[in-house]
TrEMBL record:
Pfam families: ADH_N, ADH_zinc_N. Transmembrane segments: none annotated. It comes from Nocardioides szechwanensis. PANTHER family: QUINONE OXIDOREDUCTASE (PTHR44154:SF1). CDD domains: zeta_crystallin. The keyword NADP applies. It comes from the Bacteria. This is NADPH2:quinone reductase. Keywords: NADP. InterPro entries: ADH-like_C, ADH-like_N, ER, GroES-like_sf, NAD(P)-bd_dom_sf, Zinc-ADH_QOR/CCCR. Residues 10-333 form the Enoyl reductase (ER) domain.
Length: 338
């Protein structure tokens, strides 16, 4: 099989396309023939040096394809099933930038009818992260579905990003009113296409005043990508007993917390990282995400506010560079035609 690998961390030039033997699934494992591989920021960050631990690594956490073989004891899947993958390269060397990958069965999820492989490869990291950001609120639901966020207001920072886009769509599917912040008219159009009812350009006005004009009592949940830059805003606009869900460190590694205005509002910070998420929470997220996909509520493409950018397997280095450079939209690697 063809696979993209790296044997040392560094710039995208450490990636190379090689031939490797067909991997065999062990007990409880599934071999998947990849059609698409999704590229996330953590893929280039791992490759650049954030993580290694193996002599050779195939990058890629997310992907979609077809079940090719089952290991002993696997139930609920069959050869030929269309599936999507989550956490493919976390805790193992073999990710999704390859024609074949072997994964634990619990991380191989049936792809609902009507969903294509582009969508399947775009779920994983963004959708599961968004799910946890919306379900970890101190007085909110533990699962998502129609009506579970009814009557609530969700503020999504960076609504044109992959996690922001998924958070908007999942929150809307669950009945929430969604406000999002963006930095340009182009990104405002994408966030609106994703389903946000209210879009605030934080570069052109008083963001807190605009958010509170929409939600006078404050928002219930802030889904936050840049706490070092936005914490003061979040504390100002999140309601009493609200939650600030932080899933990234864009714009800075630390931020100060003013104690009195924070505890006087009974605010809760939820820090979340997909890779160390409890297995039961991961399972709940994949089930809810699949339900949203089956309902047509979670989509990708220009019409859903998430433009798609396709790269060939041999151009995986360019795909990594595009994500690192902040290309707006979802970067996908075409491993096979279908």
């Amino acid at each position: 099989m063809r696979a993209v690998v790296y044997t040392e961390t560094g710039p995208s030039s450490v990636l190379s396309l090689v031939e490797r033997p067909t991997p065999e699934p062990g007990p409880g494992e599934v071999r998947v023939r990849l059609v698409r591989s999704g590229v996330n920021p953590t893929d280039w960050k791992f490759r650049a040096g954030m993580s290694q631990g193996y002599d050779e690594v195939v990058p890629g956490q997310d992907g979609a394809g077809i079940v090719a073989a089952l290991g002993e004891g696997v139930r609920g899947l069959a050869v030929g099933d269309r599936v999507w993958l989550v956490l493919a390269q976390y805790g193992r060397a073999g990710g999704t930038a390859a024609e074949l990958t072997v994964q634990p069965a619990e991380q191989v999820i049936p792809l609902p009818d009507g969903a294509d492989f582009d969508l399947g490869a775009s779920l994983g990291v963004p959708a599961v992260t968004a799910h946890r950001a919306l379900t970890g609120a101190q007085d909110g639901p533990t699962r998502l579905g129609p009506g579970t966020l009814a009557g609530r207001v969700v503020l999504v920072a960076g609504g044109a990003g992959a996690v922001g886009n998924a958070a908007i769509q999942l929150a809307r599917w669950s009945g929430a009113t969604v406000v999002t912040t963006v930095s340009s008219d182009e990104k405002a159009a994408l966030a609106t296409a994703a389903g946000a009812q209210h879009v605030v350009n934080y570069r052109t006005g008083d963001t807190a005043r605009e958010v509170l004009a929409i939600a006078p009592d404050g928002v219930d949940i802030a889904v936050e990508v840049a706490p070092a830059q936005n914490n003061a805003l979040d504390v100002e606009v999140v309601r009493n007993h609200g939650t600030i869900s932080i899933y990234a460190n864009n714009g800075g590694e630390t931020f100060p917390i003013e104690i009195r205005p924070t505890f006087s509002r009974n605010l809760r910070y939820q820090f979340l990282l997909l890779y160390t998420l409890d297995r039961d929470l991961l399972r709940a997220a994949t089930e809810d995400v699949s339900a949203a996909v089956a309902a047509g509520a979670l989509r990708v493409g220009e019409a859903a506010g998430m433009p798609l950018h396709h790269f060939a397997l041999e151009d995986t280095a360019a795909a990594h560079d595009a994500v690192e450079a902040g290309l707006v939209g979802k970067v996908l690697i075409d491993v096979a035609s279908s």
